[in-house]
Amino acid sequence: MTDERDKRNERDAKAFFDAIARRYDRVYAISGSSSRERLARVLAEIEGKQRVLVLGLGTGRELPALLDRGHQVTGLDVSPKMIALCNTRSRTVPTVEADFWQPLPFADASFDAVLALHGTLAHPPETDSPSRLAAEVKRVLSSDGVLVAELPAKAALPHLAAAEHAAGVNIEITSATSFVHRDDVAGVSLAGIALDEEGWASAFAPSLRARLSPLGVAEYFLVATPA
Hints:
The model has no long low-confidence stretch (mean pLDDT about 95). About 35% of the residues are buried. The protein is α/β, with parallel strands linked by helices. It is globular. Helices cover about 35% and strands about 30% of the residues. One of its GO terms (molecular function) is S-adenosylmethionine-dependent methyltransferase activity.
């Protein structure tokens, strides 16, 4: 049953991100000073980490900053349309089309840092999917490697549901820790979760030791190292 659900989630995620790919930079991406501040925080955490894996690379908005700092970047995304858009950038990186909720297609200790930004990890197919992903992240990280992620906060769900979003985009709360992200323009939706600090830290245990701090009013900034 788990394999069937994983495959269904992969299809759902692929369909969702394929459908919004051409709208993403215009409708979904954070821009301006907030984006620069967030990225500066990420870069500070991975300073000196040469080999970087980006989960949910998307259109590659972070690539210029990562490459300018000398990082060797590999991207992974489930959406071929997102990857195609990323590959139109003036500077490209190796990319892999795959579902990161499945075993990562990389050798042990291949990377010094793993990034999962913009709520990339908010759509697990199973309750234990974050824990399984954490074990895979630990496997592909060097011994002093780090995972940096941006995660939705449980307390912010009512705010997110009531907030004014771009035309055709809305958040429907389905429980105290779950929601459905709908894009009526693209005609797609994707289920997600939002946890508190303890919940997210526990979700990545026991493989990763996580610390979280607030990121704006709706998210957490997670930094995790191999346990």
